């Protein structure tokens, strides 16, 4: 029996013990990036938070007993527009953006499919792409039309919202508010203003596929149907946990629920719905449209990925985070202290219970980190931090990461150290001081040991 994990569920607005539908197979879906442009540091929050959930579930249920699907949206209006703007094909744009995203999140210490999947076994981490699942989307859409929950109008297929008695059960919004919130374009072919697009015609030059029956012209899917199709294909009609940012609750997740439940006649799509809070800048959500964003890569140019990860995990995932340089500096100091403590010891076999317990309480990372601060046994610290995806480097690896993040030119440092050594050998103290000042200007401190060797480190 796995120790009891409690999770807050947006569907019930309560924290409750988590019990997988199939005790031998936990299934999790998270909405992933739309790959039209480099991801910003706000987009990194769900990736890191649900990576931690995946790690925790693997610890509790066993690595072979958890399947995690995090999709890639590679068909979208923004993608079409950006590809046309840059004069490249859609596939060139999405492949390039996805490669950048992979590099970004790997540097944040996020597990990747190649880290966890085993040849010949059921995949543990799947990264499905929307354009590889058009057949499943068409099947779902045709099923919804056949069941009387969708209709064809002017080469579109629309979901018939009034046909679902309990539409809105996830976001729990009153109907008039949903109408305003949906910001759906008023279109003559819609029966109700809340009805949303499952399929639409493609404009010339846009990617297109064979449409569901009843429509001769080729077309392309709406956004919401993608996730219903991919989660069904990889996790089944009903699964355990569906995750994403809080802004996805309405309309995206509400509409996913409507599609999947009405197509399959199931009472729920996923049992537990988890949503992370916003990463904010001066009290406002970081977003592309507000223009107040920094890309993950820009942050990683200044800070090692582990520092960013720790700064992100210091706040509980449902609370907003204010993103500040002070938070990063603090995380950097913490990691320095911890790396100093653990040196290169191996992690303890047993996870420290004091660190695991708060994580079992709806991923209370703030308390888990406070407990890590209290540990003085290096092996326990290393094991506990490891569960959070931290302290994974050797001491020299960490030093190297700081050097890289500080943008220090190692060859130039070594040149100055050699000049200083030669000056000291010649008792030219003025030249030796000049070399030391040059190093300090680069942000490097030198230390001479008794045995005559000189080491250097980054000034914090
Ligand atoms: P998008 O590319 O806007 O669809 O966002 C991808 C993921 O990042 C979704 O799960 C969003 O909810 C999440 N997200 C976007 N902006 C933020 C933010 N400022 N803070 C936290 N999560 C965000
Ligand atoms: Zn989704």
Automatic annotation (TrEMBL):
<keyword id="KW-0479">Metal-binding</keyword>
<dbReference type="InterPro" id="IPR032678">
    <property type="entry name" value="tRNA-synt_1_cat_dom"/>
</dbReference>
<dbReference type="GO" id="GO:0005829">
    <property type="term" value="C:cytosol"/>
</dbReference>
<keyword id="KW-0862">Zinc</keyword>
<feature type="binding site">
    <location>
        <position position="288"/>
    </location>
    <ligand>
        <name>ATP</name>
    </ligand>
</feature>
<feature type="short sequence motif" description="'HIGH' region">
    <location>
        <begin position="33"/>
        <end position="43"/>
    </location>
</feature>
<keyword id="KW-0030">Aminoacyl-tRNA synthetase</keyword>
<feature type="domain" description="Cysteinyl-tRNA ligase anticodon binding">
    <location>
        <begin position="411"/>
        <end position="452"/>
    </location>
</feature>
<feature type="binding site">
    <location>
        <position position="227"/>
    </location>
    <ligand>
        <name>Zn(2+)</name>
    </ligand>
</feature>
<dbReference type="Pfam" id="PF01406">
    <property type="entry name" value="tRNA-synt_1e"/>
</dbReference>
<dbReference type="GO" id="GO:0008270">
    <property type="term" value="F:zinc ion binding"/>
</dbReference>
<dbReference type="GO" id="GO:0006423">
    <property type="term" value="P:cysteinyl-tRNA aminoacylation"/>
</dbReference>
<feature type="binding site">
    <location>
        <position position="256"/>
    </location>
    <ligand>
        <name>Zn(2+)</name>
    </ligand>
</feature>
<feature type="binding site">
    <location>
        <position position="31"/>
    </location>
    <ligand>
        <name>Zn(2+)</name>
    </ligand>
</feature>
<protein>
    <recommendedName>
        <fullName>Cysteine--tRNA ligase</fullName>
        <ecNumber>6.1.1.16</ecNumber>
    </recommendedName>
</protein>
<dbReference type="InterPro" id="IPR024909">
    <property type="entry name" value="Cys-tRNA/MSH_ligase"/>
</dbReference>
<keyword id="KW-0547">Nucleotide-binding</keyword>
<keyword id="KW-0436">Ligase</keyword>
<dbReference type="GO" id="GO:0005524">
    <property type="term" value="F:ATP binding"/>
</dbReference>
<dbReference type="InterPro" id="IPR015803">
    <property type="entry name" value="Cys-tRNA-ligase"/>
</dbReference>
<feature type="domain" description="tRNA synthetases class I catalytic">
    <location>
        <begin position="18"/>
        <end position="332"/>
    </location>
</feature>
<comment type="subunit">
    <text>Monomer.</text>
</comment>
<keyword id="KW-0648">Protein biosynthesis</keyword>
<keyword id="KW-0067">ATP-binding</keyword>
<dbReference type="InterPro" id="IPR014729">
    <property type="entry name" value="Rossmann-like_a/b/a_fold"/>
</dbReference>
<comment type="similarity">
    <text>Belongs to the class-I aminoacyl-tRNA synthetase family.</text>
</comment>
<feature type="binding site">
    <location>
        <position position="252"/>
    </location>
    <ligand>
        <name>Zn(2+)</name>
    </ligand>
</feature>
<feature type="short sequence motif" description="'KMSKS' region">
    <location>
        <begin position="285"/>
        <end position="289"/>
    </location>
</feature>
<dbReference type="GO" id="GO:0004817">
    <property type="term" value="F:cysteine-tRNA ligase activity"/>
</dbReference>
<dbReference type="Pfam" id="PF23493">
    <property type="entry name" value="CysS_C"/>
</dbReference>
<dbReference type="InterPro" id="IPR009080">
    <property type="entry name" value="tRNAsynth_Ia_anticodon-bd"/>
</dbReference>
<keyword id="KW-0963">Cytoplasm</keyword>
<dbReference type="InterPro" id="IPR056411">
    <property type="entry name" value="CysS_C"/>
</dbReference>
